[in-house]
Amino acid sequence: MMMKSFRGTFLRLAVTRSSTSFLPARLLPSTLPTRHLSTTSSLSYPTSTAGVGSGQGGRLEKDAAKADKEAKALKAKSKPADDKVKAKSKEKKEAEKEKNREKKLKEKVLKDAMVAKAKAKAAKPKSSLSPPKAPANAWVLYLADFIAEKKATKTPGEKLPSATSFSALAAPLYRSLSHSDRAALLVRCQEAKDAFPAKYEAWKASLTPEMIKEENAIRFKRRKLGLSHKSNLRVEGEPKRPLSSYFRFAMAQREAGLKDSTLSLMEQSKIIAKAWREITPEDKKALEDEYATDRAKYNEEKKAFDEEQAAKSGKSSEVEE
């Protein structure tokens, strides 16, 4: 009897456990007999509301798979946009870096140029001689007179303007000069121009051979650095270096008619260079032989001159001692 009762209870529990998912919430374990509550309370029930064979579990799995698929599709769709934004941001950063690199490079180049300029200025050879200045034109003479007058009439404590300001002040006055005043300036210019050669020769005569040698060395360095185009000074009586064969040919071509033509010096030089390339070997050899003869004569005269100057220099140094 007891065995049958236990068997019936077990069957009811099994049925209850398998069918709880089909029952409404109000018919769950509370409908079981009270004598079985202690047994059923220790049982665990499926957490899913979809029971076996109900069909709801398959739909949920499909919905979850669909949602997952849509999420992946949305992510895949938004990825190109994100990549584009990232690429644009990266490109902007690279552009900023490149801009900063160019800025630093420009600053370095400018700094190096300033340093090189300062070094060149410090190492720039300067002449210790003070040759007379070439005569100025009418405007320069008027400006010099204008500045001298302003300095003479300056009151104590008054600050003079800059040279640029002086030029701006003097320019309209110079343009409004009368014909007689302008003619007087032109006369002064011509007088200074006529007197300059004698003044320059007197200055050259005051130079010693050592001073001329030092000055020529400085002029050579300045020409090499592109700072000047002045030719070397010549000592009185120093033999002249002969012209090369090409320059002899060029002088002959200019004397033949190019000198009086309306062509520019550049165009004349092109014509002479072309004619030199087309010259016959016999004519070219004649010019080269003539140059070789003059060069040998120059070397002899220069040697004698240098010996004479060295002897004079030795005598002068003995007198000074």
| Cα-to-Cα separation, first versus last residue | 160 Å
Number of helices: 10
Overall pLDDT score:
78
Would you count the extended β strands for me? 0
Could you spell the SSE succession in H and E letters?
HHHHHHHHHH
Strand count, sense and closure of the main sheet?
none
Draw up the topology in text:
Blueprint: H1 2-19, H2 37-40, H3 56-122, H4 138-152, H5 163-175, H6 179-205, H7 209-224, H8 245-255, H9 265-277, H10 281-320
Summarize this entry quickly.
This protein has ten helices and no strands.
Describe this structure as you would to a colleague:
By secondary structure, this protein is an all-alpha fold. The protein is 70% helix and 0% strand. It contains ten helices and no strands. The protein has helices spanning 2-19, 37-40, 56-122, 138-152, 163-175, 179-205, 209-224, 245-255, 265-277, 281-320. Helix 8 packs across helix 9. The radius of gyration is 55 Å and the shape is elongated. Mean pLDDT is 78; it is low at 14-28 and 30-54.
